[in-house]
Design a protein that fits this description.
The chain has helices at residues 18-23, 25-34, 69-80, 94-102, 135-145, 161-173, 198-210, 225-234, 248-255, 267-274, 288-291, 321-324, 328-338, and strands at 9-14, 39-45, 60-64, 84-89, 105-110, 124-125, 182-186, 215-218, 240-241, 260-264, 279-283, 299-302, 341-342, 348-349. The protein is α/β, with parallel strands linked by helices and 353 residues long.
Length: 353
């Protein structure tokens, strides 16, 4: 067992995607609560570092461009200078394991779920089965394994004043008044098989706006522009799109203004949870037991279809079978249970037609 009292300088490695980095943040809180004087450095993939910007539990962030081998080499040379007391690799991947081994450290702790060669890169293997627990708990198991106490925290990120100001100005530029209730629809996903159908996003969005209970704001990165355009073309009501117009933290600030988030299994869903926005989450080939929105007050749709083949380019069951089984009506029922908004006249309305 590692003697926690000797740990003064910690390196955490999380070379994954935005959502993965965000779901790791409860570990940062646990470390700072147990070791308040320790310096914490986090290594992440370039493009995900904004999740940790302004985070009070992080002292340094190192972003590595996964596309370039030399970037990884430079990161190793840089990190070796600091002689860490502990390297905690939360990635469970080859690249991160090699980085763990090459960095100078007294203790190296990491996962090896596949029982592969990378286990030799660590002094201690974390005993956890990701198929049996939520990802937040899976990462927190690493904290327990090194002998620290874990007080449950939600995933967290921190917007700056400039992010809040930008979100307000962006909505104003799109003709949205400050007092108007907003529902964010984020239809993007990393794989097509994880995406709900465009006509159903359109039908749900129309129902919300026809009820006059809230206005729809579509969001996403530049890669989602055509997907959102397709949905808007199928709608009978007009809607606002801020696709490609926000950074990660600006998007988070925008979500703080929303009464509800509707979307697929993606990083944006976890960001919504982190800023306290209720979520209606649409799951297909991924398991919400592992990747679902953290905490209570959310609604998740998952038909539990055998979608293991969908992690390849195609779906052997045809045309996003798991996602097409999620109906408009059941999603609207969920929205009605969450979207209880007081109109200016004081009456409570829902999105029922």
């Amino acid at each position: 067992m590692i003697d926690a009292s000797t740990i003064k300088n910690i390196l955490i490695i999380k070379l994954k995607y935005l959502g993965d980095v965000l779901l790791m943040t409860p570990c940062l809180h646990a470390i700072k609560e147990n070791l308040p004087l320790a310096k914490v450095t986090v290594v992440v993939n370039k493009g995900t570092e904004s999740i940790l910007e302004n985070h009070p539990c992080v002292d340094y962030v190192v972003a590595v461009d996964r596309r370039y081998f030399l970037a990884g080499c430079r990161a190793v040379i840089h990190l070796r200078k600091f002689r860490y007391d502990l390297v905690l690799d939360l990635t469970d991947g080859d690249r991160a394991a090699i980085l763990s081994r090459l960095v100078s450290a007294r203790h190296r702790v990491g996962y090896n779920a596949e029982q592969r060669w990378r286990g030799y890169c660590y002094d201690q293997i974390i005993d956890a089965d990701q198929s049996e627990m939520h990802t937040v708990d899976y990462y927190l198991q690493a904290i327990k394994e090194i002998g620290l106490d874990t007080v449950q925290h939600s995933p967290s990120l921190f917007c700056g004043p400039d992010d809040e100001k930008y979100a307000d100005e962006l909505l104003f530029d799109h003709g949205i008044r400050y007092e108007e209730p907003l529902v964010m629809v984020h239809p993007g996903s990393r794989w097509e098989a994880k995406s709900w159908l465009a006509d159903r996003f359109a039908a749900v969005s129309d129902a919300i706006q026809n009820s006059k209970s809230a206005r729809i704001v579509f969001a996403g990165s530049e890669t989602e522009r055509m997907r959102v355009k397709k949905i808007q073309e199928k709608m009978l009501t007009s809607s606002v799109s801020v696709v490609g117009q926000t950074t990660v933290l600006q998007l988070a600030a925008l979500m703080k203004r929303c009464v509800l988030f509707i979307g697929n299994d993606n990083g944006a869903m976890h960001i919504a949870v982190a800023v306290g926005c209720p979520v209606v989450a649409l799951f297909g080939p991924t398991d919400p037991k592992i990747w679902g929105p953290w905490g209570t007050g959310h609604r998740v749709f998952f038909k539990n279809v055998d979608c293991r083949a969908c992690f390849t380019p195609g779906c052997r069951l045809g045309s996003q079978s798991c996602m097409s089984q999620i109906s408009v009506d059941e999603v609207l029922d969920a929205i009605n249970s969450l979207l209880m908004i007081k109109n200016p006249n004081g009456r409570v309305t829902s999105c029922e037609n």
